[in-house]
């Protein structure tokens, strides 16, 4: 009889309480949550103004690392490093492309959004555009780098570029 109470107690302690989600941080269902490792510390979110980086580097093709070295994000730390570089293409047929390349060295993926906004200029509408997606974690993928880009037309000036990201 004691073994029955022990099993019931173990199951009850692992079952989620009200307000607790059935899907835990590491993807285990609630009834297995007593077996999961403790949750990791929250890593800081990325929130960078990219205007000076994009506007000051103009390349017709993706630059080499010697031409445009990566910059390390100021809040990178032991176990989670994010490096980036940004540029734009020269104006061709009244359009140019804004780009950012992100490289991470971490056991986690990172979801990045790179975008640009511009105010309305006379009769021309403003600009609100972005490209987003994950950068794969290092060690499990050979794609720890990713380039995000979008095309900008001739009617937009004074564009503010930004990049946000969250670890996941």
Automatic annotation (TrEMBL):
Superkingdom per UniProt: Eukaryota
Protein name: Uncharacterized protein
Organism (species): Elsinoe ampelina
């Amino acid at each position: 009889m004691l073994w029955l109470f022990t099993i019931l107690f173990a199951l009850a302690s692992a079952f989620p309480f009200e307000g607790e989600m059935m899907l835990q941080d590491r993807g285990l269902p609630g009834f297995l949550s007593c077996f999961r490792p403790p949750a990791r510390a929250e890593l800081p979110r990325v929130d960078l103004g990219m205007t000076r980086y994009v506007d000051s580097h103009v390349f017709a093709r993706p630059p080499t690392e010697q031409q445009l070295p990566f910059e390390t994000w100021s809040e990178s730390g032991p176990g989670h490093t994010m490096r980036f570089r940004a540029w734009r293409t020269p104006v061709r047929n009244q359009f140019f492309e804004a780009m950012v390349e992100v490289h991470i060295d971490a056991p986690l993926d990172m979801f990045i959004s790179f975008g640009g906004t511009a105010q309305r200029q006379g009769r021309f509408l403003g600009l609100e555009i972005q490209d987003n997606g994950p950068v794969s974690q290092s060690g499990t993928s050979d794609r720890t780098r990713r380039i995000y880009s979008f095309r900008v037309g001739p009617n937009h000036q004074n564009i503010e570029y930004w990049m946000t990201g969250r670890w996941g």
